[in-house]
């Protein structure tokens, strides 16, 4: 567990995603869940030994399986954006391992198939503020990686947890993305409003604003290439040709190349179908 400042932590040693904790006099706020049951229980035990106050809340930064499957093992009330809660409505009560080749972290742990979901029981739409002493916590909608993507910000300490908005040395998840909104969120993150902030990525831990710039440049380039494919009415399978160029922008162990290729193959195909296929365009009309 890495301390950012007194009472504010992140942990990127567990399977799944980088998680966080904000421990305040009146309560404890957790940010996302460890993926593996044993690690989730360990995390809960560590946090409860330091917790103060009676309020307990878990925030899911979006609906991705990697950050939500462990909710049930923490036994906190769960807060998420309304669109994230809507995504849960379309899931069965038991996780059945859908989209098995999406390049998600959960695919490395098939033993979690059969887990039961814990759905968000608190939702919001734009902004939410928590006052539990010492620091105000600002939770805000910043769509892009998904419709319900949010950030957790502690303005007094200049700390922000951004989920999948920017990640380092691995390709992004694109299946549920809105690239235009994502680029706008990254523009805000690198603006004066977040100058000198400590930025915690939901998959990379502590990152710099240079990573934010690189993420934005990559997405702008990708959006242009997808628009070009659409203009010549290319089929969704042609998005595979973009994968080598996208992977060349990252540094990662060779053993992960196939895994990350699957992530991009699945994400690009789904994104293109949803935004550029004839059926998608007909629905828009």
Describe this structure in words.
This protein is an alpha/beta fold and 285 residues long. Helices cover 34% and strands 20% of the residues. The strands form two sheets. The protein has a seven-stranded mixed β-sheet with strand order 1-2-3-4-5-6-7. A six-stranded mixed β-sheet has the order 8-9-10-11-12-13. Strand 10 (150-154) and strand 11 (159-161) form a beta hairpin. It is globular and about 60 Å long. Mean pLDDT is 93; it is low at 280-285.
Topology:
Elements: E1 2-5, E2 8-11, E3 19-24, E4 27-31, H1 37-50, E5 55-59, H2 65-68, H3 71-74, E6 77-81, H4 82-89, E7 122-124, E8 127-131, E9 136-141, E10 150-154, E11 159-161, H5 179-189, E12 198-201, E13 205-207, H6 209-231, H7 243-247, H8 257-276, H9 278-284
Parallel strand pairs: 4-5, 5-6, 6-7, 11-12
Antiparallel strand pairs: 1-2, 2-3, 3-4, 8-9, 9-10, 10-11, 12-13
Predict the CATH topology.
Metallo-beta-lactamase, Chain A
- List unreliable stretches of 5+ residues: 280-285
Helix-strand pattern, N to C? EEEEHEHHEHEEEEEHEEHHHH
Q: What's the CATH C level?
A: Alpha Beta
Total number of helical segments?
9
Short description:
This protein has 285 residues and is of the alpha/beta class. The protein has helices at 37-50, 65-68, 71-74, 82-89, 179-189, 209-231, 243-247, 257-276, 278-284; strands spanning 2-5, 8-11, 19-24, 27-31, 55-59, 77-81, 122-124, 127-131, 136-141, 150-154, 159-161, 198-201, 205-207.
Name a few traits of the molecule.
single chain; 285 residues; alpha/beta; Metallo-beta-lactamase, Chain A; six-stranded mixed beta sheet; 9 helices; 13 strands; 34% helix; disordered C terminus
